[in-house]
Amino acid sequence: MTAERHLTPLPSSELPSPELPPTASPKVLREVMSSFATGITVLTAAGDHGHGMTANAFSSVSLEPPMVLCCIARTAQMHEAILRTRHFGVSVLSAEQEDLARYFASKGRPRGQAQFDQVDWFPARHSGAPLLSGSLAWLECELAGVYHGGDHSIFVGTVLDAARREGEALLFFAGGFHQGMPSSRSA
C-alpha cells in the first residue's frame, strides 16, 4: 500500500526562516508534548508471541471506512507483533486502570502470552487479540498500512469491531496519570 500525499504548499511568507536553527530537540519536544493531554490505551496482539504495551500515540483516522492509527517505536516488541499478526487490539483505559497502564509499560512483566495471565481480558472476535476487561472502549483492527515516522512506525488499522461503556477516562498529562472527564453520550 502506498501513502497518498495531499499536501498544500505553504506560501513562502509562512515558511520557517532558513537562518533560524531548529529548536525542537527530543528533550524540548518531550517537554512540549507533555502539555498535550492524551487518553491511555493498551495495544495488544495475539498468537504464540502475543504482546501488549501501553500507548498514548493513538488516534482516529477515518469514519468511512472506520480506521485508526497508533505509533510504535521500531525497536518495541509490539512493532514486530503487529507486523507478524497483521491485527491489533486497542483497550481505551478507564480511570480505575492506572495499574494496567503501569503494568503494560513495565519492562519487568512476563513476555509473550504469559503477560496476560495476571490480568482480566477477553479475546477479540476476529483475531483473538486480548482486550482488557473494565476498559472504556475496545477496538479490534486489521493492519491496513505501515508508514515510516522517524524512529517510529505509524500503523493504520481498519476497525473490524468496536464497543464502549460509560465511565471516566485515564489521561496522561505533564508526565503523570490523571482521571479525566466522564465518557458519556450527553454533553
What labels would you give this structure?
single chain; 187 residues; mainly beta; Pnp Oxidase, Chain A; three-stranded antiparallel beta sheet; 3 helices; oxidoreductase; NADH-dep_flavin_reductase; Split_barrel_FMN-bd
Instruction: Return the domain count.
Output: 1
For the CA atoms, what is the radius of gyration? 18 Å
Give the strand tally. 12
What is the CATH architecture descriptor?
A: Roll
Low-confidence stretches: 1-7
Structural class: mainly beta
Look up the CATH topology. Pnp Oxidase, Chain A
Mean pLDDT: 84
CATH superfamily: Electron Transport, Fmn-binding Protein, Chain A
Q: Percent helix among the residues?
A: 10-25%
Q: Quickly count the helices.
A: 3
Region (Disordered): 1-25
Organism: Actinokineospora alba
Keywords: Oxidoreductase
InterPro entries: Flavin_Rdtase-like_dom, NADH-dep_flavin_reductase, Split_barrel_FMN-bd
Any overview of this molecule?
The structure is a single chain. The chain is globular. Residues 1-7 have low confidence and may be disordered. With 187 residues, it is mainly beta. 13% of the residues lie in helices and 42% in strands. The protein has one domain: Pnp Oxidase, Chain A (Roll). The N and C termini lie far apart (39 Å). The strands form three sheets. The chain has a seven-stranded antiparallel sheet with strand order 3-2-6-9-10-5-4, with helices on both faces. The protein has helices at 26-33, 77-85, 98-105; strands at 38-39, 41-45, 51-55, 58-63, 66-73, 87-92, 121-123, 130-132, 137-149, 152-164, 167-173, 176-183. Pfam families: Flavin_Reduct. Keywords: Oxidoreductase. Residues 8-17 have a biased composition (Low complexity). Residues 33-179 form the Flavin reductase like domain. This is NADH-FMN oxidoreductase RutF, flavin reductase (DIM6/NTAB) family.
